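task queued by scheduler; priority normal; single chain, no ligands, no partner chains; default sampling; output format set to structure tokens
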Amino acid sequence: MLAQDFFNLQTLREVAQGHAAAEFGPRSTDQLVRQVASLVALGSLRLVRVPRAPETTGRYLRHKPEELTPADFVEETKWLRLQVVDDVTDDPISGLKLSIVLPDGSQKQATTDSSGRIELSSVPPGYAQVNAALDGATLKETLVFEKSGILASKQPAGRSRKRKTPSGKFLARVVEHQVSDGQTLEGIAEQYGLTVDDIARFNWDTTDPDEIQRHLYVDVGCTAKDESGKFVFTRDDEPGLLYIPRPLAMSGLAVEQSHILRVRKPARSAAFLFSV
């Protein structure tokens, strides 16, 4: 019943966030209600009914309180800022598309500008989440998420660098899988909940069986073959790496704060073939 009133709900959020159990704050009203109920059950929080203030005559007020209209319940809105930069050079990453889930559950699609920033206004109070889709992603076009933090209000002027700023259309977490004896491409795909085509498309931008075999030889360093003539993995493969894309879903981003996301290009290794 308390959560049905906007102002009571805001008070409950502030109370819950003051306890260690609410490290990142509740994401929904249902989660908040369950959290407050747990605090009450544990004795960490008590609800007290305050009696009505008496009149100067000593009697309690008996007049009907003034009714509030919907216009009196205008929800306060806030802002949210993000910046994506290269983890090595601190250079901004522009043109990166992100999906931002706002505290009220709505989503906004946004793209980083020339300074690597996304600025949103009229954001409900609470915590946001950043998602990045992987549909059609390839290793060449993907930036790897490294870490996040709070952006300082004043940043030092950037130094001129000769290094080219990395670019990419996709942002993800990338697992570097080291192959070993007995593993197969099908087995590795199943391990990560993917298909062989998913892994091949991400690593080499192809699903053609002959091209996959060529990349296993050139990029993974496979040398052993099975009875059918296809390459198989061994622990002696050099570099013996497959890159596995994992979707990015980063929650707990408080509004009215500027957040920084640090990214990098995948450190891709490749076998070198020499001929005489």
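post-processing summary
- Confidence is low (pLDDT under 50) at residues 20-26, 272-276.
- The radius of gyration is 27 Å.
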